[in-house]
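hey so i finally got around to running the thing on that chain from the lab meeting. sorry it took forever, my laptop kept dying and i had to restart like 3 times. anyway pasting the input first so we r on the same page abt which one it is
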Amino acid sequence: MILSCAALPYAFSLNPFRLPHRPPCIPHQGCPLDPDWRFAPVLSLCYGRDSNPLPEPILKSLLTLIAFTAGAATSAQAAINAQLGRRFLHPMQAALASFTIGTLACLVICLTMRLAWPSLARLASVPWWLWLGGLLGTCYVLTSIIVTQRIGVAAMLALVIAGQMAMSVLIDHYGWFQVTPRALTLLRTIGAVMVIGGVALMMLKTRID
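ok and heres what got predicted. didnt touch it at all, straight out
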């Protein structure tokens, strides 16, 4: 599901009889779209605002749908990885298998979409902490494999959502990791508390195997 933003719009825009050429991406200028490509508004969501920005209501609805679908896929991912972990000698091996498949999928999509690759100088200018996303992803997948086997998918994801909600509120409020600050309003606070409260209710009857 992580790859859906790139894979699905590309699949929808394919001509069954001819694959149109797509111009390469230009750094800081977005990815220009060939006139023969269909679904340009959907593609613009993935390739940048410079191509063909969507109206705000449609963009918001589309982003909501994508995020909801990604969340649903995360549940399936947790269940699948947990079963994969049972078939390996160690959960870390299952995590390695999962990330290997994901890496290959990303590579295939990047090559198929003919994306431009960043230069070594550009990569060298990236702050060191921006590379930690992969490490944090490894911790999440490994944790989900171990915990899901003991308490189930729903309880594990409930705890994950609680942690995500608490951390995301802080990140938004203080603008950590260079994100645009969003003040912690009363309504957002109530929403976060309700989510965490729902997680607490789900954990009351959770059985640990």
